[in-house]
Amino acid sequence: MSCSALFSANISASSVQYRSLTIKPTNYFSACLNVDVCAPDSNQKGFLQEKRSAEIIADEKKFIVGTYARAPLVLSSGKGCKLYDVEGREYLDLTSGIAVNALGHGDPDWLQAVTQQADVLTHVSNIYYSVPQIELAKRLVASSFADRAFFCNSGTEATEAAIKFARKFQRFSHPDNKEPPFEFIAFTNCFHGRTMGALALTSKEYYRSPFEPVMPGVTFLEYGNTQAAVEVIKSGKFAAVFVEPIQGEGGIYSATKEFLQSLRAACDSSGCLLVYDEVQCGLGRSGHLWAHEAYDVYPDIMTLAKPLAGGLPIGAVLVTERVATAINYGDHGSTFAGNPLVCGAGIAVLDKISKPEFLADVSEKGRYFKDLLVEKLGGNSHVKEVRGLGLIIGIELDISASPLVDACRECGILVLTAGKGNVVRIVPPLIISKEELEIAADVLTNCLPALDNQVGNK
């Protein structure tokens, strides 16, 4: 279905009226007028003129292992909350590279930090000390429950480290026990990564079954079922409980304070560690620096990644001193982890996001946008619920969300799916404006007929 067909009587041939903001329809589909945005240098400009979308997509199918079912879109540049494809069409980005680009594209403070650090020192390995790594660790510790930080390169690596730290902690805490607690608890709809340990903690069989046997000893419980979790944890055979305060990939489900409090109490009484996965929901996305701050219930270990270096690969595991005491030299490591370049970027990101006024703005925009979506979408028969906290929002549908996602892309708005494919996941840059959120809400509303079209074609 074309974009023009989806925009009904609300759209004229000359302009689209979005509340107080008038936008020409060509904004998203005409060539970019800013050469610096469309093509940062003449070499890239010439390359893009030669390699259009169809040819680039064909090359990808020839030369890259087919692990991704990509959308048919070749992106070449971005600025703020906007992305541009190789034909110069403009898109409003509500994906942030899957909750990574929290400061948008080309943030000047991030860019300055990266270019200055790249000009001085990029990588030395962890055989030596480097100042940016220690400075970022100081900031993370000062702003959280933790006493120490461990750096890695991704969210799944952070999960792997947390698994090892939890098992080492139990061995350290039970020196006379030949078989200390080594099993783990995770929850329905959870996602903790794709490497073998993290995969074992991920609930969807779809992800696990092609690679079985995965790491044994993982029990999956219903997310939010306090009674069941407490009863199982009491057995004393678990090294750690892994839980997302807000599930992202699973469908934007939030924990309750009672649930997290009960996990905390049960873990304390049984000697089990409580691990929060804030890879997607952490670092300002919820309107709090850490999502669990909304519940005032704190973990022993927390995993971080996606937005921490603003688009450069980084992961981190924050731990209490009690956990850190169990870890010795050589227990874990990484060649690239925490290098000066990514940590310099991380400092710039953390310094900006952790400001109280920044977080308050995220909270306010999140409430505004969710209310707007409820107002505009709530009456549609396919919309079951709009949920989320801050700028991590899910629109649950009674059918697949893919036609709506595709229609939005055709109309210049990029969103994601989640859950069982029936949730529209919205994780825009945290710097997004209210005017841009209003545009997004209107486009989503006008693209809803794509869902009826899906039903009609069944």
Automatic annotation (TrEMBL):
It is an enzyme of class 2 (transferase). It comes from the Eukaryota. Its cofactor is pyridoxal 5'-phosphate. GO terms for molecular function: N2-acetyl-L-ornithine:2-oxoglutarate 5-aminotransferase activity. Keywords: Amino-acid biosynthesis, Aminotransferase, Arginine biosynthesis, Mitochondrion, Pyridoxal phosphate, Transferase, Transit peptide. Its EC number is 2.6.1.11. Pathway: Amino-acid biosynthesis; L-arginine biosynthesis; N(2)-acetyl-L-ornithine from L-glutamate: step 4/4. The keyword Ion transport does not apply. The keyword Amino-acid biosynthesis applies. It is found in: Mitochondrion. Coiled coil: none annotated. GO terms for biological process: L-arginine biosynthetic process. GO terms for cellular component: mitochondrion. Gene3D superfamilies: Aspartate Aminotransferase, domain 1 (3.90.1150.10), Type I PLP-dependent aspartate aminotransferase-like (Major domain) (3.40.640.10). Belongs to the class-III pyridoxal-phosphate-dependent aminotransferase family. This is acetylornithine transaminase.
